[in-house]
Write a structure and sequence with these properties.
Elements: H1 46-55, E1 58-65, E2 69-73, E3 81-86, E4 90-95, E5 98-99, E6 105-106, E7 119-124, H2 128-131, E8 133-139, E9 145-152, E10 160-171, E11 183-185, E12 191-195, E13 220-224, E14 252-255, E15 262-265, E16 272-276, E17 282-288, E18 303-304, E19 307-308, E20 322-325, E21 333-338, E22 351-355, E23 362-367, E24 370-376, E25 385-390, E26 396-400, E27 404-410
Antiparallel strand pairs: 1-27, 2-3, 3-4, 4-5, 4-6, 7-8, 8-9, 9-10, 11-12, 12-13, 13-14, 15-16, 16-17, 17-20, 18-19, 21-22, 22-23, 23-24, 25-26, 26-27
């Protein structure tokens, strides 16, 4: 897979390379199927794209240019600030549209960055205003992936207390790719952690790979209470689907994932959507109504999308609601958000997403077991489409690993 400069299928973790971001093997804008199908379509002409975007009343507003941005977020309800996560190990504050000169947090001395590694995301605790707690997910100097708790400084809203670090959880990918890396609080106020299968092709570590192995944390969506509990660094909800099962890790919420680089919760309904990066043929979008992903098996490695990959059992495998084929020029899906920004009625309730290689911004309406109206938004192509983000008011952002960050705005 490629690595992050060339953009790799990057953290998205495309399949093998993981190194220099060369992504050379991934095509740019290949031909696709007709719009409104479950597979991404070919790019439209610039004229028709502009008309399509105008008809939906949406444009991309520039936020700024950053150093390998991989995520944007903010505490819920925050009106003035957003926080931009940079892969190299810094978190930048943008206040009232202007980037602040000093970072909110600088972890460059602790982070290994490059390829699919680095500082990959952050999440504010639901009670952040009172406790000042937030969490980061990064690759340490030893190659181990860590979830660490920090607190905002008491002296101001735009500086973290660098000395407040507390290790919550660590998982050790076998290789330098497929790290997952997103952390997010769900509607239940618990912390969800996406982990990749550990790297390499075909999830070859272990007898049946990691993703189907309930005794390992890799290839999963985890759910924990990140607060220390009973002398332990975090708590495990008793309602987790495998809590108490012999041989299973109780932290596991969903499994059978290859590299869930980006997932999100609908801020209105609580529904969960996962963009799971494929291997050599198919990228997938998985969807579950609120709470229904508990115990779900998303099929990897026996399945890549709906396609058989190994003749192995995958009990109760849940197929994706959307597939993006590599034949159409896709290489590494970038999961997004269901839009709930009231200033964008043309996108209300639609899931926006893209692909690292194609860079085409798309939207679809998702439901249990299916998707409809999948189409291009007709907006500019985003080179090295690394991630989407959502701020405290529900406004949605998109970013390029090469630097630019944009906000979906009324057009």
């Amino acid at each position: 897979m490629a690595s992050w400069v060339v953009v790799t299928r990057f953290v998205l973790a495309c399949s093998l390379i993981a190194v220099a971001l060369a992504l050379g093997a991934c095509a740019g804008d290949g031909a696709g199927n007709a719009e409104d199908s479950g597979t991404a379509s070919a790019a439209t002409t610039s004229t028709s794209s502009a008309k399509a975007a105008a008809s939906r009343g949406v444009k991309l507003a520039s936020v700024g240019t950053f150093d390998s941005p991989v995520f944007v977020t903010a505490p819920r309800g925050e009106r003035r600030r957003i926080f931009v996560v940079e892969q190299g190990g810094t978190i930048r504050v943008v206040r009232a549209g202007k980037p602040r000169p000093k970072p909110f947090l600088d972890l460059r001395s602790r982070v290994t960055a490059g390829g699919e590694q680095g500082l990959l995301s952050m999440a504010f605790a639901p009670d952040y205003a009172r406790t000042r707690r937030f969490y980061v997910n990064y690759t340490g100097r030893d190659g181990v992936q860590r979830v660490v708790e920090y607190r905002r400084s008491r002296s101001g809203a735009e500086r973290a207390d660098a000395g407040s670090a507390r290790l919550v959880l660590r998982y050790d990918p076998f290789e330098a790719n497929h790290n997952g890396g997103l952390i997010a609080f769900g509607p239940d106020k618990l912390l969800y952690i996406g982990t990749g299968d550990g790297g390499g092709a075909d999830d070859m570590h272990g007898t049946r790979g990691n993703a189907q192995d309930l005794g390992r944390l890799e290839g999963k969506l985890l759910r924990i209470d990140p607060r220390s509990s009973g002398g332990r660094p975090y708590g495990v909800p008793s309602s987790n689907p495998f809590a108490g099962r012999n041989g299973a890790r109780p932290e596991i919420y969903s499994y059978g994932l290859r590299n869930p680089w980006r997932f999100s919760f609908d801020r209105t309904t609580g529904d969960l959507t996962i963009g799971d990066v494929g291997q050599g043929a198919i990228e997938e979008i998985d969807f579950a109504r609120k709470g229904e992903a508990s115990g779900a098996n998303y099929g990897w490695r026996p399945f890549e999308g709906r396609r058989r990959n190994f003749d192995e059992p995958a009990p109760g495998a849940v197929p994706p609601v959307l597939e993006l084929t590599h034949d159409a020029g896709n290489c590494s899906v970038t999961g997004g958000y269901v839009v709930r920004d009231p200033s964008l009625p043309g996108l209300a309730g639609r899931y926006v997403y893209g692909d690292f290689c194609r860079g085409e911004l798309r939207a679809a309406r998702l439901s249990a077991g299916s998707a409809s109206g999948d189409r291009s938004l007709g907006l500019r192509r985003i080179d090295s489409l690394a991630s989407f983000g959502e701020d405290g008011l529900g406004r949605v952002y998109v970013m390029s690993l090469s630097g630019p960050v944009y906000r979906f705005a009324a057009g």
